[in-house]
Structure formats: structure tokens, C-alpha cells
Amino acid sequence: MASQSHSAVVFNSSQVFKENIFDGKVLFCTGGGSGICRAMTDAVMRHGANATIVGRNVERLTLAAKELSDATGRMCIPAQADVRQPKQLQDAVKKTIEAFGKIDFVICGAAGNFLAPISGLSENAFRTVIEIDTLGTYHTIKATLPYVRASRGSYIHVSATLHYRATPYQVHVSAAKAAIDATSAVLAIEEGPHGVRSNVIAPGPIGGTEGMNRLSAKGTSTREYEASIPLGRMGSVKDCANAAVFLFSDAASFITAQILVVDGGSEHVRPLTLPYPQSVLDPASIKSFIKPKL
Ligand code: COA
Predict the structure, then answer these.
(1) What is the CATH number of the domain that holds 273?
(2) Three-state secondary structure along the chain?
(3) Is 95 a catalytic residue?
(4) What is the model's pTM?
(5) Domain hosting residue 161, numbered range
(6) pLDDT of 183-201, one tens digit each?
């Protein structure tokens, strides 16, 4: 029997990178209470960093911070903040400085999403996603930059691939993520001379995440979907975490203003997630393609 291909295996960053590469470093991560950003925090902590995770749900954050501390042997603290509120982010930064004295790494990951056609999307709904994703990223940068500059640190912004081509029902997120990609690049060139790097991780289909569960087509079996991905499997949150470890590490010290797509090659062959044009001609029909809310 043929041995399992390398790409079919999900690796931990500790199998590839040294354990202590982030000793003494401090991570500030919005959206770190769950999903991809939690996995990124976990991996960065396993290489030695302490961390603050930021989010709206204090119960979820507190539990996640405890679990991350227990699992990694490093310290993770929760800081409740809505990224739409600059003052709350400033308080979260203050808490981080009081606890750890510095910030080296920032992950701008807090995001919101749902499926809705332009014709059925209210101004407030569009604004809400722009405010969480784009303004939330801006507020996070503004609150952390003096500290990241002081430590000649690094930013990672969690974006997406759906805006590379038009994706129906995702105008709000497409606009928000395109703006984040642009923001990261400008940050990189303005702050590069101060020793600060800024890059984007663009996850493709990552299994088990809230985004994937909420947004993937109901009738698509995982096996059928996985077969359509060039590397033959869904991504794991660990794949995104490994990318974050690489981008924060000194191995990426000459990499800035870049977008690292973590999607197994699927962007190049991606079919539309929803049936086209049926889903556009009959907006009500998308309900039957969306998995029940988690
Ligand atoms: N379709 C259309 N509009 C929607 C919607 C949907 N599924 N969900 C929310 N909206 C609209 C609301 O109707 C409201 O607009 P309105 O005032 O014109 O009615 C606007 O968006 C704000 O919604 P609200 O629920 O008040 O905002 P919120 O700040 O509490 O939450 C989200 C916004 C995006 C965070 C929320 O939709 C959510 O909880 N999503 C799930 C979590 C998530 O997105 N995780 C990330 C996965 S990638």
C-alpha cells in the first residue's frame, strides 16, 4: 500500500520549530478565545510566549485562557473587549503591559460573518462587519503599535480568500477583508523602517471552525469536498497556527507586506460554495444550503 502523502498529515509546529523560539515574547491576540486564533495562540505559547486573548464573551475567554495556560505551561490572560471600541482595546493593552511589560506579536483576528445577498443586506449589517473586521483591525493596530514598535515586533492579520474572486452573499466580508489586506501592506511599509513586520494569513477551508460550519453548503459531504482540494484534505486550525509560528519567527525576518494563503491550493480550483445561479436568483433558497447555526 502506498504510504500516506506528506500533505495528508497535519503537523504540530513543535515537530518543526525549536521549543524555545518565542521565550520571553508576548502575544496580543484578538479573537483568541476560539477557532483559528485560539490555535495560533496555543502554538505561539508552546514555543515560549505569554499571551493576552481578547474577545467579547468573558466566560469563553476566561476558560480558554486557563486551558491555554494549563496546556502550554505559559501564562495566558483574558481581556474582555469589543474591537469596535477603541477604549476597550486600550484597556486590554494596558492589562497586557501590567501583566507582561511588553507586546512583541499581535494577531488581529476578531471577525464576524453571515451569508446575505446585497439586496437583503441592511446598511447596519454591512457596517457591523466592516466595524468588527476592518475598524477592529485598525483599532487594534492603533492601541498596540507603540509597544510593537518598541520591541521591533510583528503583526499577523487573519483575512480570507473569498474576495480574490466575487463570492455571492459575502459582500460585507469581501469588502472588510480586502481592506484588511491593504491595511497590512501599508502598515508594513510605514513601520518597516522601525523594524516592525506586518503580514496576512488567509485561511481557506479550515475544518471544524465556526466560519466553515456556518458558511459551507449543506449538501456537500466532507469527503466530496476534500477531494476537490488539491492537497486532498480540509485544512486544520493547526495549519494556520504553523503559518503564524513561521511568520512570527526569525525565519521570516525578511518577509513583510505579504499574504500567506493557507488553503491546500483550493483557491485555484475553488467552485462557488453555493449553487450558481440558483442561489442568486432565489435568495430564499440559500436557507436550505446553510447548516443549522452551531
Ligand atoms: N443576515 C442578514 N443580516 C444579519 C445577519 C444575517 N444572518 N446577522 C446579523 N445581521 C444584521 C442584523 O440584522 C443587524 O442589522 P439591522 O439592524 O439592520 O437589523 C446587523 O447585522 C447587526 O447585527 P447584530 O446581531 O445586532 O450585531 P452583533 O454585533 O451582535 O453581531 C455578528 C454581529 C456578525 C458578530 C453576528 O452576526 C454573529 O454573532 N455572527 C456569528 C459569529 C461569527 O460571525 N463568527 C465569525 C465566523 S467567521
Answers:
(1) 3.40.50.720
(2) CCCCCHHHCCCCHHHCCCCCCCCCCEEEEECCCCHHHHHHHHHHHHCCCEEEEEECCHHHHHHHHHHHHHHHCCCEEEEECCCCCHHHHHHHHHHHHHHHCCCCEEEECCCCCCCCCHHHCCHHHHHHHHHHHHHHHHHHHHHHHHHHHHCCCEEEEECCCCCCCCCCCCHHHHHHHHHHHHHHHHHHHHHHHHCCEEEEEEECCECCCHHHHHHCECCCCHHHHHHCCCCCCCECHHHHHHHHHHHHCHHHCCCCCCEEEECCCHHHCCCCCCCCCHHHHCHHHHHHHECCCC
(3) no
(4) 0.93
(5) 26-281
(6) 999 999 999 999 999 999 9
